[in-house]
Amino acid sequence: MGRISATKDSKESRKEKSGRNRLSNNSLKNNAHFNWDDYLKESGEVPAPLHCFRQPRIPPSNEFKINMKLEAQDPRNVTSICIATVVGITGARLRLRLDGSDNKNDFWRLVDSSDIQPIGTCEKNSGMLQPPLGFRMNASSWPMFLLRTLNGAEMAPASIFKKEPPSPQHNHFKVGMKLEAVDRKNPHLICPATISEVKGEDIFITFDGWRGAFDYWCKYDSSDIFPVGWCSLTGDSLQPPGNRGKSLH
Questions:
Q1: Tell me: the pLDDT tens digits for 66-81?
Q2: In what order do the strands lie in the sheet with 178-182?
Q3: Facing residues of 100 across strands?
């Protein structure tokens, strides 16, 4: 982030909020045109049972607010714990930006992810907060940058962090089961998807109606996959299936 004025922060915050409002409006339109019950009847396929997923039956509540600070694992350097700011909110997920980084490296986490913790957790565990990979200033300026970043900031209270749910003991997914999945190339999107292959603890996710470029392998307990109906419970925007041959971009 570097030294950003309060005015610029305010403009960016308004931009995030307006973007989130547009996303909510799109959600209403998209979900109005897509019905899982009708879609499953037409396809003759079945949704993956709830016990297949790490996510709980009832999604966690999201009480975070834009501009709140927290500690987060750097996704590009998982041994580092950094300061992060909430720059976007949708459903049970947070869009996070590591302080000292830029908006090209934003990432999403569920509110019950173990990758995020209240400010002070690292120190309690005898650790040290680190600058993010690609810190935009001189490394020697990190201590002063950290002080300025936290001075007067709104810290996310410990009470709004949720405990990460346990993983299912076994992989119960089967080929052909339907689910909702994060598009990892456009991680703000959640789309209807299908289990196309199962290998041990790994499953292959394909997005209904889209080219194979968006498909991916993941662990069966991934936090990027959700049971059918998840978005309707969280208020997330569920994208309708694409028309084969088109692009999400």
A1: 999 999 999 999 999 9
A2: 216-219, 202-207, 190-199, 178-182, 225-226
A3: none
**Can you read off the two tokens belonging to residue 130?**
């680190």
SS3 104: helix
Task: Confirm whether pTM is higher than 0.90.
Answer: no
What's the pLDDT at 194? 97
Angle at CA of residue 162, ends 156 and 167, nearest 5°: 145
d(C-alpha 61, C-alpha 151), whole Å: 28
Encoding tokens for residue 32? Answer: 């109005």
Among residues 24, 59, 50, the alpha carbon closest in space to that of 236 is found at: 24
CA dist., res. 98 & res. 200, Å (int): 34
Distance CA 192, CA 53 (A): 15
Q: Where are the beta strands (DSSP E) in 35-164?
A: 69-74, 77-90, 93-98, 107-110, 116-117
Q: Which two structure tokens, joined as six digits, stand for 48?
A: 């993956």
Write the pLDDT tens digit of every residue in 8-47: 444 444 444 433 333 334 434 445 568 999 999 998 999 9
- Structure tokens given for 119: 């400010």
